[in-house]
């Protein structure tokens, strides 16, 4: 593992963000609503994923003035997204001193072959993954937090569930393999042997593993937490719902009391309408976000 | 003797791991019903605004105050912010379990986070063991005022980073993220003494 001081500090912040909700916000007003609802961090972006999907075009890093306005408004950590492989956007976000960079499939890819080589950055990165191979490749590149991709902006939890179950299952399988079999697993996962061995020994990723993409209700948050997510990212699910303030509070509660059905029931009362959802099979293949950046 | 880690939000899992390594019987605490089962409590790092919201909204504030009156609490980072008398930058409610003022995010943002090797005060060494201590500061607060009777156990160039008053321990760094278990051992010794 890359347990340098720098990498430990990056993982250290991810540890502090466990058991909570990171909310997508597009302006200072939304950031304040998120903070007051109990978000443990906000993700500053220009458009939430469901709008990116609707409006099309190239989705890029958010305007600096927007991110700065959000950083000036809240005391919790502020994350921002860069395009996959766009190390120049990443370096600008680092200079801006955002607390975490999400190298995200929600934005248009800048490089359809490479991700950012993240180790030299002082700011930590989170990356999406659908399976263990993707997760370990991102960690090899220097990601200090993984989030399962789900399908952003869909309001449909099915991909988030698939990705979390896949990673958990693939990790469990490694724990019973022999040393020689791990070499084969490394080949099949297309992931460094050193990281495969680490997962086999510990039964978990060497960095925190959160869930994202399609979480629209407190029950969705509780579902992925019970499946092993250590926190949740909520994108369009909050500010595309009828009553963002209430829903934000409810999802925060659900992430904390994910194992307590009575508390979950309380969280679900009088929430108003959730965001509209999409059937994944009705989304044209070229518009799917989770297939970007493998 | 059972030890609780407040598990509303934050790095409670790392504290549980650290306590288990020392052989402690540990449980997560989210509700008043769980709080009464433990003899000592760690309030972990995380976001103090998030924890505060959950504590105040879900009926944990009064039980926590009652607990603090007789039991040992160790607050790290966000936990120290919740336990302080006065919080600044920005100002927010706190429980005042320990007579210190604390300034949030006082070192800056994540890129200003750091790992430092500190020489503890003699009292800390006498109670736990010799050697420098690796201290991880993550978007850390600064303890900006010490009330009377608050003792400094570890400092960093004049800034107190681990302090003690009565049943309370408060620190601005994260010993749960290192392999050095002396701070957790000190906490367990305090809990053990308090339960007679």
Q: How does this structure look, described?
A:
The complex is a heterodimer of chains A (294) and B (196). Chain A has helices at residues 5-16, 28-37, 49-55, 64-73, 87-96, 132-141, 158-175, 179-189, 193-202, 218-226, 236-239, 244-256, 261-268; strands spanning 21-25, 41-44, 78-83, 100-104, 125-129, 145-148, 209-211, 232-234. Chain A has 13 helices and 8 strands. In chain A, helix 2 links the parallel strand 1 (21-25) and strand 2. The radius of gyration of chain A is 18 Å and the shape is globular. Chain A has an 8-stranded parallel sheet. Chain B is α/β, with parallel strands linked by helices. Chain B has a 7-stranded mixed sheet with strand order 2-1-3-4-12-11-10, sandwiched between helices. In chain B, strands 5-6-9 form a 3-stranded mixed sheet. Chain B has a two-stranded antiparallel sheet with strand order 7-8. The model of chain B has no long low-confidence stretch (mean pLDDT 97). The chains are: A alpha/beta (294), B alpha/beta (196). At the A-B interface, helix 1, helix 2 and helix 12 of A face helix 1 and helix 3 of B.
What is the H level of CATH, i.e. the homologous superfamily of chain B?
A: Class I glutamine amidotransferase (GATase) domain
Structural class of chain B: alpha/beta
Strand content of chain B: 25-35%
Arithmetic mean pLDDT of chain A: 96
Strand segment tally of chain B? 12
SS-based class of chain A: alpha/beta
Q: What kind of assembly state do the chains in view correspond to?
A: heterodimer
| Rounded Rg of chain B | 15 Å
- The count of strands of chain A amounts to 8
- Cα-to-Cα separation, first versus last residue of chain A: 21 Å
* Amount of helix of chain B: 25-40%
| Largest sheet, spatial ordering of strands of chain B | 2-1-3-4-12-11-10
Order of helices and strands of chain B: EHEHEHHEHEEEHEEEEEH
């Amino acid at each position: 593992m890359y347990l340098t001081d720098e990498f430990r500090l990056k993982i250290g912040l991810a540890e502090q963000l466990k058991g909570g909700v990171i909310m997508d916000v597009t302006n200072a007003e939304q950031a304040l609503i998120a903070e007051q609802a109990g978000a443990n961090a906000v993700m500053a972006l220009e458009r939430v994923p469901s709008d990116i999907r609707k409006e099309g075009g190239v989705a890029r890093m958010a305007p600096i003035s927007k991110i700065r306005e959000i950083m000036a408004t809240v005391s919790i950590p502020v994350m921002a997204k860069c395009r996959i492989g766009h190390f120049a956007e990443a370096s600008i976000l680092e200079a801006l001193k955002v607390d975490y960079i999400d190298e995200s499939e929600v934005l248009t890819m800048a490089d359809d072959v490479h991700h950012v080589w993240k180790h030299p950055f002082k700011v930590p990165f989170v990356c999406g993954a659908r399976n263990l191979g993707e997760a370990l490749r991102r960690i090899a590149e220097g990601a200090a937090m993984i989030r399962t991709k789900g399908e952003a902006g869909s309001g449909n939890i099915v991909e988030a569930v698939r990705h979390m179950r896949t990673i958990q299952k693939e990790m469990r399988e490694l724990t019973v393999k022999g040393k020689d079999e791990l070499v084969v697993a490394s080949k099949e996962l297309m992931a460094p042997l050193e990281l495969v061995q680490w997962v086999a020994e510990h039964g978990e990723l060497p960095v925190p593993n959160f869930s994202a993409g399609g979480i629209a209700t407190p029950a969705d948050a509780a579902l992925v937490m019970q499946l092993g997510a250590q926190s949740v990212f909520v994108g369009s699910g909050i500010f595309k719902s009828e009553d963002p303030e209430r829903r934000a509070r409810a999802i925060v509660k659900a992430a904390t009391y994910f194992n307590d059905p009575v508390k979950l029931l309380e969280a679900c009362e009088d929430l108003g309408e959730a965001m509209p959802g999409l059937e994944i099979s009705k989304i044209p293949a070229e518009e799917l976000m989770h297939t970007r950046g493998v | 003797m059972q030890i609780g880690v407040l598990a509303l939000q934050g790095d409670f899992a790392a504290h549980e791991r650290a306590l288990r390594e020392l052989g402690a019987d540990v449980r997560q605490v989210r509700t008043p019903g769980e709080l009464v089962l433990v003899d000592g409590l760690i309030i972990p790092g995380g976001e103090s605004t998030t924890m505060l919201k959950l504590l105040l909204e879900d009926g944990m504030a009064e039980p926590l105050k009652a607990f603090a009156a007789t039991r040992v609490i160790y607050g790290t980072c966000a936990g120290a912010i919740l336990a302080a008398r006065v919080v600044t930058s920005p100002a927010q409610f706190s429980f005042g379990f320990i007579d210190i003022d604390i300034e949030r995010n006082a070192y800056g943002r994540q890129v200003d986070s750091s790992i430092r090797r500190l020489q503890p005060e003699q009292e800390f060494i006498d109670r736990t063991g010799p050697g420098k201590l690796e201290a991880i500061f993550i978007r850390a607060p600064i303890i900006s005022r010490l009330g009377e009777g608050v003792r400094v156990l570890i400092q960093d160039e004049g800034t107190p980073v681990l302090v003690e008053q009565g049943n309370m321990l408060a620190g601005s760094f994260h010993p749960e993220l290192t392999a050095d278990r002396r701070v957790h051992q000190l906490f367990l010794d305090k809990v053990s003494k308090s339960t007679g």
